[in-house]
Specification:
Helix 2 (13-22) crosses helix 4 (40-52). It contains 5 helices and 3 strands. By secondary structure, the chain is α+β, with helices and mostly antiparallel strands. The protein has helices spanning 3-10, 13-22, 29-33, 40-52, 75-103, and strands at 27-28, 56-61, 64-69. Strand 2 and strand 3 (64-69) form a beta hairpin.
């Protein structure tokens, strides 16, 4: 899934809260809806966006829908953040070297 799709799905506070909740373990749609002031159909739409982004799967157990986080979908985000962190750490190190060399003159 493109990184932009993942970030777009996570940009909504409700969807981010869903992902945070699912990071603690699977949950039913009812369990996901309870802490939010939204209707079950609205929660279904939010979960659908997360499913389309590959972040969440859902399965039916009888009449209950159970949602599960797919942590592998966050691997690309983690790699991107790792690259960004390495870049900025290198930039800060170079700046410190440059500033340190001014002190020696």
């Amino acid at each position: 899934m493109p990184l932009a799709t993942t970030f777009a799905a996570l940009a909504d506070p409700t969807r981010l809260a869903i992902v945070q909740r699912l990071s603690q373990g699977e949950a039913t749609m009812s369990e996901l809806t309870t802490p939010h002031a939204i209707t079950p159909p609205a929660m279904t739409k939010h979960v659908g966006v997360l499913v389309d982004a590959g972040l969440v799967t859902r399965r039916k157990l009888g009449r209950t829908v159970v949602c599960t986080l797919q942590p592998a979908a966050l691997t690309e985000v983690q790699a991107w953040l790792g690259d960004l962190t390495a870049y900025w750490n290198g930039a800060v190190d170079r700046l410190e070297e440059l500033l340190g060399s001014d002190d020696e003159h």
